[in-house]
């Protein structure tokens, strides 16, 4: 379905629950390529609608650094609370709610891989990863160490000037300002709410890019990617996976209760 997303990527209601995980994201890079929606259909479950912006779907690669992973009220454990990560993503809707569908994720922390697979049903793979940051230039390399397909990434980028917050209705908002993900846990569709402040973005120049992550899914992209970089670190909270139908019923019930008391 093609639209301009005048509803600002309809998100889950603001009903807050205690998060199951807190972490800090930093040094993140968004790389996006346009791709026809039919090309993505083979890697996105039929339950989910592939979202398009002006008639085009998008696929992205996002390398980042995660630190301070911990349950609420528990201090982070050294050597266990951090990981380098790369995800391959596209954008979907279910019952009108925009979200992210991860085709695959790589992580350097094997415990994080296990926890995300068991607790969230996410397709994580262990990888040998390395990162080097000098000033505003960041380089990351990754090679998957288990799984059916070869998947590697070598990327180097340099951050530039700060960008304003993404505005609703723009391509940047469509690609970046998303606050839930979809996954299958024990063969049932689940929605996971993600909470953080709006993305602080900056321009970036990509000096090196060599990847086989997208190809590992039987897909091909061409041309230079659309690039955005994270300007500063921020805290992120993730809730437990829930049934999207249950959440929709709760949101409808809350709206009905408000109308009955108005």
Provide a descriptive summary of the structure in words.
The protein has 262 residues and is mainly beta. Helices cover 15% and strands 46% of the residues. It is built from four helices and 16 strands. The protein has helices at residues 37-40, 110-120, 171-176, 244-260, and strands at 2-3, 21-26, 29-35, 49-50, 52-53, 57-70, 83-94, 97-107, 124-134, 137-144, 152-162, 180-185, 188-195, 201-211, 226-230, 234-238. The strands form two sheets. Strands 2, 3, 4, 6, 7, 8, 9, 10, 11, 12, 13, 14, 15 and 16 form a 14-stranded mixed β-sheet that branches. The protein has a two-stranded parallel sheet with strand order 1-5. β9 and β10 (137-144) form a beta hairpin. It is globular, with a radius of gyration of 18 Å. Mean pLDDT is 89; it is low at 249-262.
What's this entry about, in short?
With 262 residues, the chain is mainly beta. The protein has 4 helices and 16 strands. The chain has helices spanning 37-40, 110-120, 171-176, 244-260; strands at residues 2-3, 21-26, 29-35, 49-50, 52-53, 57-70, 83-94, 97-107, 124-134, 137-144, 152-162, 180-185, 188-195, 201-211, 226-230, 234-238.
């Amino acid at each position: 379905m093609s639209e301009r997303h005048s509803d600002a990527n309809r998100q889950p209601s603001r009903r807050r629950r205690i998060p199951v995980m807190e972490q800090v994201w930093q040094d993140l890079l968004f790389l996006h390529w346009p791709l026809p929606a039919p090309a993505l259909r083979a890697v996105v479950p039929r339950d989910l609608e592939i979202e398009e912006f002006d008639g085009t779907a998008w696929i992205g690669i996002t390398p980042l650094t995660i630190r301070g992973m911990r349950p609420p009220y528990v201090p982070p454990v050294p050597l266990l609370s951090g990981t380098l990560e790369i995800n391959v993503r596209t954008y979907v809707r279910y019952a009108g709610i925009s979200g992210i569908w991860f085709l695959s994720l790589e992580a350097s922390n094997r415990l994080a891989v296990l926890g995300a697979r068991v607790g969230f049903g996410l397709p994580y793979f262990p990888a040998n990863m390395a990162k080097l940051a000098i000033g505003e230039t960041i380089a990351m390399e990754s090679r998957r160490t288990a799984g059916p397909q070869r998947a590697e990434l070598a990327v180097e980028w340099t951050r530039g000037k700060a960008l304003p917050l993404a505005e609703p209705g723009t391509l940047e908002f469509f690609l970046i300002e998303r606050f839930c993900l979809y996954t299958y846990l024990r063969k049932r569709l689940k929605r996971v709410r993600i909470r953080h402040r709006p993305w602080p973005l900056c321009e970036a120049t990509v000096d090196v890019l060599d990847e086989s992550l997208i190809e590992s899914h039987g897909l091909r992209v061409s041309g230079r990617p659309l690039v955005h970089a994270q300007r500063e670190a921020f805290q992120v909270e993730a809730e437990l996976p829930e049934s999207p139908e249950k959440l929709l019923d709760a949101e409808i019930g809350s709206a009905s209760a408000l109308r009955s008391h108005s």
